[in-house]
Amino acid sequence: MVTFIDAHRGDYGVEPICAALPIAPSTYYAHRACRTDPEQRSARAKRDEVLQREIHRIWHAHFRVYGVEKVWRQLRREQIPAARCTVERLMRALGLRGVSGNAILPTRGNRNFPTLLTEGGRMESVDERAIAASIPSRLGEEPGEVGMVRQDRWEEIHRLATERVALAEIARRLDLDRKTVRRCLRQDSWQAYRRTARTDTLLAKHAEFLRERAPQVRYSARILFQELRRLHSYAGSYETVKLFVRPLRAEQAAEALTQRRFETPPGAQSQIDWGQARVHFRTRPVELHVFVLTLGFSRRSFYQVCPDERLSQFLDAHERAFEHFGGHTHEHLYDRPRTVCTGSVDGKVVWNATFKAFAEYWGFEPRVCRPYRAQTKGKVESGVKYFRRNFLPGRSFIDQDDFQEQLGEWTTTIADLRVHGTTHERPLDRFARERELLMPLANRASFQLEAPRSRIVAEDYLISLDTNRYSVPFQLIGRVVDVVRRGEELRVLHRGEVVATHRVLAGKYEVRIDPAHGPGALARTARQRRSTPTPVELDGRHVPPIVEIRDLAIYDAVAAAPAVVEGRP
Asked: pTM higher than 0.70 for the full model?
């Protein structure tokens, strides 16, 4: 249709012809623009041009007998993506078709060399030497290439050979050429198939430049194409560059996903992380946070349950882990929580000031993972998964203390004694070799932190601290309160207000209850039944009522003032 318009546009004009034909003038001009500047063509047209060249090459390389199915499969083997329907459409447009039935290749001479068929099917007279140099050992292989044998078939060839199966029988069983079987038997190890690089393409002389430049431009085919056109006078298409870059980008993506196991010597590194657990205290759902510290060499872990992940809980759990192991490693590896660092500036980590002081106090070096690369600390990540999958299922808990008690028993009797899947040893056995290399605590006192420690009020309106339990007003059952220890005094705060104070109990596993915190008559109602306040008994002591004390000058001023009666001057 476009050709017809080109032939008669001088006589009738474009618009009158388009009015009589089912084509718009804009479509015709768009076709002409594409012919003038091929870069204005659609992405499909550019892609078709590349595929047509590849299809024509494959069809000729395989003696012009391949049909749609075989051409399509050969494209897939060469990692050239194309749909089967696309191959069929382009072969029809090129006028190419395969040989139906069993293809019989004509031969000439006593050497039985296949001769190439011309487009019309006539035998072409070709010199035998040229034919011999161009024909591969088997149909389907490019000249100079080695046929692909998968690893499983290579191993099967060697297995049959050790059973003294004849070479011809191996070839028959596995449907392989005897020369292929012989070649595999000469190899000491299996070698992956590598296609011979083509040297007849427009990009062949620029391949080294593209491999070196591609990582610098983040494998952008568009930028590489522009630089080739500007700096190297490249005359090929953008699609060719894109096809070249695609495997390079895939290789880089696969390399980025590859993980390498990193082992540390005894006493060198610990990894720290948080794990969450949603459980029920009797019938009430509660979300707990579990601090996990895993020693890098022995894989022995310490677990401490906390009501939240605030800095006070974080540092207190560290000190409990140090006490549990009898020391700590030289280096600690963390993710990037705000309790550890607040980001980075010019490539340097900005540490949380309190956490940095804590690290200097105990003498360990903190390190953090790269952003969005939490798998760097995979040892502690595995410890968190093991806790969730092995400890939590099928258990019931009364309160936080019961949870911690069961967790400690599970750690001692199961986690420390299991055979680790990576080291194939028990963590406790490996810890025996690591214990002496930990940094000692040297009887150093606990790091004092002004920030409060959070606790969840249990159903008996008690909170736990250092194995002892203290009462708080019963209205706070299920709420989170903050506990601050100042010397021998313990203060309990809720929303910034002090709700209870206690003297610190000296022993362990003791309980201190203030009767005023319970659901008694005094706690249930604030209404006074008498005009004279009743003395309150707190901790066995009588507290007198609070009476306001005024200055006597106030009473003298009132007596000297003239009496005022309502309605009179």
From this structure: no
